Amino acid sequence: MSYGGGASGGPPGSRPSGFALFSDLKSSGIQIGPHNTLNVTQGAGVQTRSQRRAAASAPRVKEKKPKRPLSKSENEPSLDEMDKVCKALNKYKDTAWRDLGTKLGLSSGELDTIHHDHHAAGVYEVSYQTLLLWKQRQPTPPQVKVLAQALCDIGRGDLSDKLA
User: Fold this and answer.
1) What is the rounded distance in angstroms from the CA atom of residue 131 to the CA atom of residue 125?
2) 8: containing domain
C-alpha cells in the first residue's frame, strides 16, 4: 500500500494528517466516515450502497427475443424510431440505456457524461441523448440494422421489432 502526498504543498511522499491516497486495489471495507465503507476491486467501478440496493431492487427484465427477423435496413434510424426505443427503455431498469450505449460503442466516460448532464430529466432523456451521441459519432450514417442488433444483444429484441 502506498500513500500519495504533496496535497498541501509538502514534498512528494509526505502527507497531511487525515489524508491518504491508497493504491492497493484489493482492499475492502475501507471506512469512510462513521457509516460508509468502500470496497475496491481492480477494473470495477465504485458503487455506493444506495446504488447496489437500487440495482438489486430493479425489476428483472426477462430477455426478450424479436418476433420477426432483425431489420437489414441500411437507412439511418429516424427520430420517430429513436423515440419509440427510448419510450420502451424508459419502462424498464434504468441501466438499459447504458447497456445499449456500450453495445453501440460509446465509452464509459461518454455514458457517465450523458448521465451526469441529463439524469434529472429522466431515463427517457438519457436514452435519447445516448442514441443521439451514437448517431453523431458514426463516420458514415448509422444504420437501423446496427441499432436492431445492439437491442438484441442487450436482451431487448422486442424493441428491434419497432425498427423498420
Assistant:
1) 10
2) 1-57
Number of domains in the chain: 2
Q: Alpha-carbon distance 119 to 30, whole Å?
A: 29
In a domain, residue 141? The reply is yes
CA 134 to chain centre: 13
- Residue 156 and residue 87 in one domain: yes
Reported as a pLDDT band with limits 50, 70 and 90, residue 143 is: confident
CA trace torsion 140, 146, 147, 153 (10° rounding): -150
Q: What is the pLDDT of residue 43?
A: 47
Tell me how far apart the terminal alpha carbons of the chain are, to the nearest angstrom. Answer: 55
Tell me which residue has cell 441523448.
Answer: 129
Contacts for 24 with CB less than 8 Å, ≥ 6 apart? 1, 2, 40
Q: Read off the pLDDT of residues 49-99 as tens digits, 9 standing for 90 and up.
A: 666 665 565 555 556 665 555 666 678 888 888 898 888 888 766 688 899
